[in-house]
Inverse folding.
């Protein structure tokens, strides 16, 4: 994996993790710029659903480097922003690297720079890229974009539902000890949101080894 001098970062912010096994935990989010599914432009949504179903509904702004604390940043600059946002705490920072698709951006140097201050480095990925060694990998598959990530590297599976694919396909190669979450597809329409939540609840009743994940940060109005 090649080393970068500068990483395109959309934004870095302190919040609570809203999803999955670490929901509710204090975390610094590092959002990388760019994605290999959707270009991020409205006019490309329909075209890019051929690469990944999520292009139809993605609501993340991952374009450019103009967000809060964003920029073309060195590993040390990213580390320093994490330290500043986390503040003086006995516990080392939890850093969640999200995107866009962080697998397009991160490398060993960045991960080691963060781990060297004791940070727990988490990555949320669509699984299309190999990743450096991190402390926690959340796979959120976006078919038909394939998963190239080694299944042994995955610490949790999080599937958006209903999103035109069967989450069980991705769970079957994983040991049962790996937590698996089903998360309602978020829509601007409250009626659709209620139906999606209901579909997820029914899914968990049919598949009790799965757990419901809600987007706590949206419910609470956090960033
Ligand atoms: Fe959005 Fe993630 Fe899909 Fe990229 S992979 S378009 S960031 S949901």
């Amino acid at each position: 994996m090649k080393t970068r001098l500068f990483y395109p970062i959309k934004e870095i912010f302190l919040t609570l993790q809203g999803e999955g096994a670490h929901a509710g935990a204090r975390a610094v989010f590092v959002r990388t710029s760019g994605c290999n599914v959707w270009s991020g432009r409205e006019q490309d949504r329909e075209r890019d659903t051929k690469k990944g179903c999520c292009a139809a509904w993605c609501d993340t702004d991952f374009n450019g480097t103009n967000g809060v604390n964003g920029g073309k940043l060195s590993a040390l600059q990213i580390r320093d922003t994490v330290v500043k946002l986390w503040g003086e705490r006995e516990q080392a920072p939890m850093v969640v690297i999200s995107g866009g698709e962080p697998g397009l951006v991160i490398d060993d140097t960045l991960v080691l720079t963060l781990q060297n201050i004791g940070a727990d480095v988490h990555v949320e990925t669509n699984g299309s890229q190999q990743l450096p060694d991190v402390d926690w990998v959340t796979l959120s598959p976006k078919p038909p974009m394939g998963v190239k990530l080694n299944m042994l590297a995955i610490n949790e599976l999080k599937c958006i539902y209903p999103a035109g694919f069967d989450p069980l396909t991705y769970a079957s190669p994983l040991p049962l000890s790996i937590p698996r979450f089903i998360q309602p597809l978020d829509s601007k329409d409250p009626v659709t949101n209620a139906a999606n939540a209901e579909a997820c609840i029914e899914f968990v009743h049919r598949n009790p080894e799965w757990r419901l994940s809600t987007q706590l940060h949206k419910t609470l109005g956090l960033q």
